Amino acid sequence: MKVLIIGGAGMVGRNLADTLVAAGQLGGKPVTELVLFDVVPAVTQGTDAVAVRVETGDLSDRATVDALIAPRPDVIFHLAAIVSGEAEADFDKGYRINMDGTRNLLEAIRAQPGYHPRVVYTSSIAVFGAPFPEAIGDEFFTTPMTSYGAQKMIGELLLNDYSRRGILDGVGIRLPTIVVRPGKPNKAASGFFSGIIREPLAGIEAVLPVDDSVRHWVASPASATGFLIHAATMDTAPLGARRCMTMPGLSVTVGEMIAALGEVAGPDKVALIKRQPDATIRGIVAGWPENFDASRATEMGFVADASFQDIIRAHIRDMEAAG
Amino acid sequence: MKVLIIGGAGMVGRNLADTLVAAGQLGGKPVTELVLFDVVPAVTQGTDAVAVRVETGDLSDRATVDALIAPRPDVIFHLAAIVSGEAEADFDKGYRINMDGTRNLLEAIRAQPGYHPRVVYTSSIAVFGAPFPEAIGDEFFTTPMTSYGAQKMIGELLLNDYSRRGILDGVGIRLPTIVVRPGKPNKAASGFFSGIIREPLAGIEAVLPVDDSVRHWVASPASATGFLIHAATMDTAPLGARRCMTMPGLSVTVGEMIAALGEVAGPDKVALIKRQPDATIRGIVAGWPENFDASRATEMGFVADASFQDIIRAHIRDMEAAG
Description:
The structure is a homodimer.
Chain A: E1 2-6, H1 11-23, E2 25-26, E3 29-30, E4 33-38, E5 51-56, H2 62-69, E6 75-78, H3 84-89, H4 91-110, E7 118-124, H5 147-164, E8 169-175, E9 177-178, H6 191-201, E10 206-208, E11 215-219, H7 221-233, E12 244-246, E13 250-253, H8 254-265, H9 267-270, E14 273-275, H10 279-286, H11 295-299, H12 308-321
Parallel strand pairs in A: 1-4, 1-6, 4-5, 6-7, 7-8, 8-12, 9-11, 10-14
Antiparallel strand pairs in A: 2-3, 11-13
Helix pairs in contact in A: 1-7, 2-4, 4-5, 6-8, 8-12
């Protein structure tokens, strides 16, 4: 089968591509061709069994998207997006890529007669906006507080409608914040959730800008890959017309994260966390969802991490494997 | 002040235009110019005090919309839409007018520096999709089951985001089914809700294609005009970032509607209703919302009809006034 990953150079896309190449199959069918599309070249290497083709381009260019869809991939993962901060800073770019780009993809599929691929779309918990109930249920309304969240929700509505119309077979998954992200610290407001685990484990100091009581909704990189693969292979009949779901995750406080780090890696690692309260980051984080009741996704077979300790242990294994 | 009604030739737009011309003011400020835009010419006549300008065109043409916005109307009512049945039959036309047309309007406003008009947008209860709770609350999620509903919800998301960004001051109102619609019977699946009142009052037989137990969410034409005027003049600060609301209405069964007709107009009118069950219409209507808890709109000062009897009496008065 042919698989296309739009956003194949990002952290989530790369993990997925690496996993598909290593497995050589998706849902029991051999993956013969894997196309990785992004604005920068993806790095995943192919094998004799799985040919990897790397392409770059702009999702807002319809001709580019038409060319990408012309070979009729059986499964399309649409992970590409202008992230929250950039979509807020650049109004036009956010709408052009996140809204028009997604629509270009759906329209390019619609333009191919008799073609009906599985489309897995990564949405975001940014479709929700404060004030929140104690746990956000599957039927809670979506009132985004960022342009990114609005664009992601528009993508959900389009995915649902194009699926209902029989144009494609869509599944939309709202990912939790991915922790522990590998790599260098970044300036995202959510960056410290990974940083307070990743940096101490690497023997480096980490800054904690919020209180220990701050609660957040997280999943490991491996869980994210698992969600994507399940979304690509699941029976979509039970979803009916409601194709988009909040993925299961762990609702943990910063204090619980730090305690888990101590339990897994010892108190000397915890000592590397420096508390430097930052009013700006505190304010941003205060508007984020803390907890979900993601029953529907769980019923549909999506599986969350078992514990935050497991998330830390998985990160340690990944780092050891990467040398 | 200058007022623009996009969709000024439709039933709701015409009622609003007539009301504004008669009142000569909106929120206590004199209306000096009223522009009525639609695909066909609007019929409302101006007065010495209120100049009415009638324009026709296509909302999906950005240059047309730019020209419409160039005089910087203080209040814009955006009522224009490809209706549910047509948007379902013509995929491209529905998205072109309902989604791209709405976006053209918001973008034309954004293109004018320092301009920040009140924009009243009519959404629809079609943003909701079955299965429903017993009464749909203000925080129930939006899962449209038609392309029209998806397009209306995308408009809501855009209106919210452009308002949050300070580009405009939007209020989105989800209208109930308008009963009693004046005029001839039409082929809309919901047409009988008006027909079983309107036709008997005119001494004509009416067909009832569903059971007496069918429950529906309705408001009078006068209430719809009242909602629009309140949305144009209310203080939007209490809305925060959640600019769109389900309007209050009456949840009444067909049996209750018929009993009210008997009470107001007598049993000989009721005798003109012929029960001719229609499986297709029954099926369509079964997927529609029956009841809402529209507390938020009520708290924000929107007022529903007091009773279905009042709705019938108002229709009788309108017909007498129209001769």
